[in-house]
Amino acid sequence: MASHTYTPMPDQGAKASVLAYLVTVAVVLLLMMVFGLLMRMEQARVITMGASWFYELMTLHGAGMVGIAGLAGAAIMWHFLRQYVALSQGIFWANLFLFLIGVVMILAGVLLGHFHGAWTFLYPLPGKSMGMWSQGAAALFMGGLLVIGVGFVLLHLDIARALIVRYGSFARSLGWPQLFGHDDGNAPPPTVVASTMVTIVNIAGLVAGASILIMMLVNLYVPSFNIDPLLAKGMIYFFGHVFINATIYMAVIAVYEILPRYTQRPWKSNKVFLASWTASTLMVLFIFPHHLLMDFAFPEWFLIMGHVIGYMNAFPILVVTGYGALMIVYRSGIRWDMASMLLFLSLLGWAAGVMPAFIDGTIAVNYVMHNTLWVPGHFHTYLLLGTVGMLFGFMYYLGKPDEHTQDALLDRLAFWLFMVASLGFTLTFLFSGKESVPRRYAEHLPEWVPYDRIGALFALLVIAAVLVFIIRFLTRLGRAGRDYPRAPLAYAGTA
Amino acid sequence: MSQQIAWQVSLILMSLVVLAFAFVAINSGARQEDYTPLQKRAYRIRSRLFWGMVVVFGSAMLYTLKDLPYGAERDHSGAGAAQIVEAKGFQWRWELSRDHVEAGQPVEFRITSEDANHGFGIYDGTMHLVAQTQAMPGYTNVIRHTFDKPGTYKILCLEYCGIAHHNMITEITVGSL
Ligand code: HEM
Ligand SMILES: [Cu+2]
Ligand SMILES: [Cu+2]
Questions:
Q1: Which residues contact residue A67 at a Cβ distance below 8 angstroms, ignoring those fewer than 6 apart?
Q2: A interface mutation test: which of B21, B53, B123 has the most A CBs within 10 A?
Q3: Regions in chain A scoring below 50 on pLDDT
């Protein structure tokens, strides 16, 4: 096992396509964060926009954030995976193009058609608006999701093709020969293993999502085409859970690729690593019943499976990925700059967010916390600090003018602000969840309003920090495309 | 009660994560060139961590399976016959077959929906959730709950069901015998 030595990898600039993804992500992210702030301010009774606007913004925020998290993850994965396998530029562009078409459809459905059935389009709500929106508006929204889904399916099929051409099979690109046999040290690099996992789960998730979307689109116009609401719910949450989870498993590739460059230490695919990714592949596919624990109509074993896998799922994240980051950084002499700080923080966010998540997946707890603000509390922790932290770490890495550049004071302040404000924002949600405040309420009871005000304030601060990150990235776009060394060498050490 | 525990346990576990990351960040400066011994030690600590987590999380996972809210139809614990409440969700109101029950005696809520998905959340006098289940069209979910304290309880909708979701609230009075 030659796993102790680090083989330097050159820093590559981003292709124009990757930059186009990142710019799209940055613009949409900022807009959706502002929508999030507006929702929080409405709940806090600082502004009054009314329930219709609130739920329209909520629908856009959910769909938009999930969509750009997917786009951000795809950009990171594609950028690094390209080092190992031959990916198609055309397909990568096509995905972005379809994404933008889908966004236009969604915006039209929501802003012109006033669709506000939430991003989870839970059957039969889209077809039962009580006159609040038309079938056409619902069809535009769901059609938009479908178009976006088709783009991602194409992208994953291309990745699947490239992986199989290079490695022969998914079993090999997941490192099964080394996992189950003798570890000859030649397992595929972490980026390849992670990309395989994401490709498998996302194709399954997207096929389920597209199927239920098509069924519901048919049902909108042919109501006699009946759908079992329980089946619909299962399919929607399977798709939704897999897709949003996959975003972080893609984005974490930035950590696997960049932290070793900063520490000159390897992040190798050893047996434990391979086992954890194979386990994650299975668990991400089978954990989705934890969204359905309050659907007593499902068989009990199915719900208990959600409970049990929820606990198990925490292991790879904490013991392998989170711990791996700690190992590689400990006494490494790493130079802390915006990129390395954000990537390190992102794993903290992921690992911390796992805690309230698996606790909520405990059936007895879910009984009194499901659909309270506890839920947005835990997922914002790993999406905002985790996925989005990885995204900004990647952006700072790409845009770093050269190995020796020091970050400006403003950026460093923005980093600390981002960390503190994001934690404050998510803890406010969690605390409200503990106080039984329901999620997705346009209007809160007076006793809940103080928490909403604190949450709105933290949200504002998050946006201020993110504005610095985004503007900095946009001013460095020109450089981000060029090939030159970015990651600074660690401080020289003792033997 | 569960909420309080969930919150405290989450805070403790999240703090442990923050402490671990802070510890490593503080000790990141002085580079030890040879990674091999560090790795060996880290792997040893990791397997202890792993087994520690197996024991702690594993027992918590099993212990919490002891008391599940499912299968209420089969459950006949509690004193006396259950008081049956048929509950139906509509966009956007609740219809209850009775809005007065007695404390200390089990109540069986049979919950369904006439249109979209709703969520049937029972809130106590201090506005804390004591029980919930989904209200689904075509299915009847059953909650069995014994109220210890008399008072006015509220039913809130806990599944997003459209523009008046947050107004879908009704009351149920729990009296004392
Ligand atoms: C400044 C940053 C953000 C703010 C202020 C914000 C705010 C909010 C608010 C107020 C809600 C509704 C909570 C409720 O149920 O009452 C929400 C829901 C949500 N947020 Fe965010 N958010 C932010 C960042 C993010 C990010 C980065 C993501 C994902 C990458 C995200 C994904 C979601 C999703 C999926 C929902 C659920 C929507 C639904 O319930 O239908 N948010 N957010
Ligand atoms: Cu409802
Ligand atoms: Cu509702």
A1: A28, A99, A102, A103, A148
A2: B21
A3: 1-2
* Any ligand 1 atom below 6 A from CB of A422: no
**Nearest Cβ partner for B132 among A55, A118, A367:** A367
pLDDT (tens digit, 9 = 90+) per residue, B36-78? 999 999 999 999 999 999 999 999 999 999 888 887 765 655 5
Answer yes or no: do A117 and B166 touch at CB < 8 A: no
Query: Domain containing A341: what range?
Result: 2-493
DSSP tally for chain A: helices H, then strands E = 19, 0
Q: Is any ligand 1 atom within 6 A of the Cβ of residue A33?
A: yes
User: How many other CB atoms are found less than 10 A from the CB of residue A454?
Assistant: 18
Q: Shortest CB distance from A352 goes to which of B17, B38, B164?
A: B17
List, as one string, the DSSP characters of A4-69. Answer: S-PPP-PPPPPPHHHHHHHHHHHHHHHHHHHHHHHHHHHHTTSS---HHHHHHHHHHHHHHHHHHH
- Tokens at residue A49, please? 């926009």
Residue from the list A332, A364, A447 with its beta carbon closest to the beta carbon of B2: A364
A408 three-state secondary structure: coil
Residues A354-364, buried b or exposed e (16+ Cβ, 10 A)?
bbbbbbbbbbb
Closest listed residue to residue A58, CA positions, set A438, A471, A495:
A438
Question: Could you identify the atom of ligand 1 that is nearest to the CA of residue A441?
Answer: 16
**Residues 44-73, chain B: which have Cβ within 8 Å of A?**
46, 49-50, 53, 57-58, 60-61, 64-65, 67-72
**Distance in Å, CA A91 to ligand 1 centroid:** 30
Answer whether A123's CB lies under 8 Å from A129's CB.
Answer: no
Query: Measured in angstroms, how far is the CA atom of residue A372 from the centroid of ligand 3?
Result: 12
The pLDDT tens digits for B83-119 are 999 999 999 999 999 999 999 999 999 999 999 999 9
Subunit contact B24:A294, Cβ cutoff 8 A: no
Please indicate whether residue A37, judged by its CB atom, sits closer than 6 Å to ligand 1: yes
Centre of ligand 2 from the C-alpha of residue B120, in Å: 8
Number of domains in chain A: 1
Q: Which two tokens stand for residue A159?
A: 């990745």
pLDDT tens by residue, A306-338:
999 989 988 888 888 999 999 999 999 999 999
Q: What is the pTM of this model?
A: 0.95
Q: How far apart are CA A107 and CA A286, in angstroms?
A: 32
Q: How far is CA B84 from the centre of its chain?
A: 23
In Å, what is the CA distance from B35 to each residue of A188, A410, B29? Answer: 21, 34, 14
Instruction: Tell me the pLDDT tens digit for each residue of B2-24.
Output: 899 999 999 999 999 999 999 99
Interface of B with A in 90-149 (CB under 8 A): 91-92, 115-117, 119, 121, 123, 127-134, 136-139, 141-142
Which residues share a beta bridge with B10? none
**DSSP label of B152:** E
For residue A193, give the nearest of A365, A307, A324, A69 by alpha carbon.
Answer: A324
Q: Are A384 and A462 in contact (CB under 8 A)?
A: yes
Domain holding A41: CATH number? 1.20.210.10
Helix (H, G, I), strand (E, B) or coil at B151: strand
